[in-house]
C-alpha cells in the first residue's frame, strides 16, 4: 500500500475499525458491524461506502437481502484489514482509538519511523496542510506517541519528530503493510 492509499483510507473515522472487525471474524452484515463499532448509522454508512469505493470491500454476491447486503473483503482488503487489526491492537483502549481514528494520526506515524523534519513529513504525506500537520504533531507529542527533539548539529537548530511508545507500535503495524 502506498501512503496515498493510507491517507485516503484513514480519511473516514470508522474505516480502520470496520476492516479490523472483518479481519477478526465479525460477520460482514451491517447490524453486527454497527453494534461492534458503536458508530452512528450515517458515519458507518459513509465509511462503508468509502471502503467499497477504495476497492477494499465488496457486496457478497448471492448473500444477504438487497436492502441488507452482506459484505466481504477483496484481495486488497484482506491485506488492509490485517494492518488495521494490528493498528487497533497497538491502541486497544477507547482513548487510544479516539486518537487513531483522527484523519492524520496513522499516516503521520507511518512516515516517522525514523527522525524526520516537519518539511519531510509534509512532503511524505502530500496533501496535508501546515496547520493540520502542526496540530496533529502536537497532539501525538502530548500523548507521548511522538517525540520532538531539537537537532543542533547543523548551522541552525531544527526540530525532528520520531514515533515512540504506542506510536512506534502503530508505525511497525503499518510498516509491515508497506
TrEMBL record:
InterPro entries found in the cross-reference section: HTH_HxlR (IPR002577), WH-like_DNA-bd_sf (IPR036388), WH_DNA-bd_sf (IPR036390)
Keyword DNA-binding: yes
Keyword Transcription regulation among record annotations: yes
Alphabetical UniProt keywords: DNA-binding, Transcription, Transcription regulation
Pfam families: HxlR
Residue ranges occupied by any HTH hxlR-type domain in the UniProt entry: 100-170
Record-linked PANTHER family: TRANSCRIPTIONAL REGULATOR, MARR FAMILY (PTHR33204), TRANSCRIPTIONAL REGULATORY PROTEIN (PTHR33204:SF18)
Protein known as: Winged helix-turn-helix transcriptional regulator
Provenance organism: Roseibium sediminicola
